[in-house]
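#struct-queue
[09:14] JT: dropping the first one here, sequence first, then the structure tokens:
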Amino acid sequence: MIWPNADSAVNSDPWLVEHHDQLRRMRPRVLGVNFVTGLSEAEARRQLETLSAVLAESSRWQGYRDPSAPIFLDYQVGEILDFTEPAGHVDRNSARFPREPNGIHLDYAALYELIDAEARVASGDVHEVWLLADHTDHTWPWETIEVKAGYDAALAPTGGFARYAGNSGEHTAPWIGRSLRVLFVNHARGVGCAMESLGHSLERMATCGAIPYYERYFRDYAMLHLYGRKRVRHRRRSVSAGGNVHFMPNGRFDYDLEGQGPVLSTIETWRQRDQVAVPWTPAPLERYRDFAPDCMGRWVVYWRQNMPGLDNAALDDAGRPMKNWWPFLFY
């Protein structure tokens, strides 16, 4: 079963909850928005299509181990809105870049009006927005923002929403009746940095209270308690789970892609019937060094591949098969 389809094509559709376990692939529709003066439509599309390909690879459950593992997330980059002219005065962002009164932050409410976000999302034409911009001392978009529909422990809609389900601080994005994620893609950085931003979005989605089922398990997998520490010392017999965007299982500090040497980790068998802690090093990441080369990109691809995805072998607290986490992106 594929989504969107003739029966369901919008974010936060109850159909997604009802058919969660039958889904075999999701093809979310991406609206691109280009504010970078001088960045051609062809180059903008190349950058976004590259991100789509890396996300697809990252959704292959343990694809590093199984070459035949199918992709689950197949983002479709559609229209790219061109707001590159007239040129701005402080950086490569055009004069059409909507700014908050402080002149630095992106005004998301104004962005929603500019791109007609509410109507596009309500029609099912758009499921996610990827924004290309220039990140400078004069322009600070958030990595991601999302105002997300809320659910209870049984995945029934509560009618409420979580305002900060993305990796952001205060923002002006309104609740439009359905979830919407807006990703900032720094045109001057590589795909690995965009993957890092989306990794943080997964973390925030698990700490905003929107989806208790997802939060219950993600917190355990991602070892979120490590955030805020300047340095981590792994004791000889301590066991790490899956780690998080900043800390691999053997990470010593933020953004450590080398680690302190082998540590015991359950990342590749987490919550499986045969879960076992084995010595782990960053060696499996080498296959992704050139694929997602900057920021924490190569780690994030592997990290996502070990999250419970399509046909995963993890078990929930009741011993039932763990739900595929990827559909929660569009709840």
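[09:21] JT: and here's the second one, same format:
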Amino acid sequence: MKKQAAFILASLLLVTAGCSQAQPEAASQEIVKAKVVEVVTVKPQTDPVLLQLTGIMEAKRDAVLPFGTGGTIASIGAVKGAHIAQGQLLATLDTRYYQKEVEAAASQVTEAAARKSKTLKGANEEAIEQQQLQVTNAQNQLAKAREDVEVGERLLAGGAISQSEMDERKRALASAEISARNAQLALDSLRRAAEPEDVAIANASITQAASQVERAKKSMDDAKIEAPFAGTVVDIYKQIGEQVSPGEQMIHLVDLSEIKVTLDVTNDEIGLFGKDSKVQVESQDGKTGEGNVTFVAPVMDKQTGKYRVEVTVANPDESWRGGMMATVKVPRKIDGFLVPLESVGVSQANHYVMAVVDGSTVKKEVKTGQLVDDQIEILSGVSAGDQLLRSGITFYVEGQKVEAKGE
């Protein structure tokens, strides 16, 4: 019995000793076991990299056309949706009043021209003869007045007339002298050619009358609407017979032969857009076309902090319409390698990645470049074929045992 108990105790001791030795070995195996990590392999960029920006399509030209004057609408020569040629008459006002203004102003021009012609020719012979008779009559009156004064002086000396009667004869003489002089001046004026002042007055009258004609004709022109460009009628805001004021909206016209996409571009990306450079444009329904950069703002917009860029695309079938969303794609140059953004960490002022080398993590400082969607360009610090931790690099330290999984 004692021998059996001793044997059992010895067996228990052996088992206990064996277990105590196995536990440290298992613990050691758990410590050195490598953690499985997802990696990305650094590869040269073979596919083209595009910058994609979104903008809104606009018509090449978009105008709301008014009348230049007020009145009653007499005719409308277009309907909504109609394709209009440049210069086509779209609407008119009742122009009877303006037509009378033109006719009245034209008659004033004719009258002013006639007056000028008469001024240049001078007075006719009949007027000169009549004035000559007036001069002769005035001279006869003057001669008689002088004779009356001479006789009166003798009569006054003899006491035959009073001093007041003598004064009256002198006043008659003075009046006769003035009349004779004025008659002669009038005759001289009729006989001489037109003075420069008279010609200037006549010219001014013609100019004023001609200006009235131009104003009346402008009113006639303002009473009609012609298409300033070929396009499509979007809307008509008034009907025949309605009153309209000068400048009031009448017809909405758009030109969709080309569409324009306006973009807001950051300072880092503006260098990709050169005037007259070619870009790809894709509409929201998947249609693509080639666009031309027609405008690049020389200064930044203070409100948005970005540069305005305009891209023009031919639209001969007018399948692209104003208000649609469009994506503009511009090739961008990549000088380094593109890796996921979360593969790059920041340590103080430097960027770094965690590479996997021989089953351990290695911290590498890198120089970064441009952001491309959810990727970042690495200009230096890595080589093609390097395996980098895809994400969570802040949870790893250099030299940590890992097992790479992924690319």
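[09:30] RK: nice, looked through the second one.
[09:31] RK: The chain has a mean pLDDT of 84.
[09:31] JT: good to know. The longest helix spans residues 125-158.
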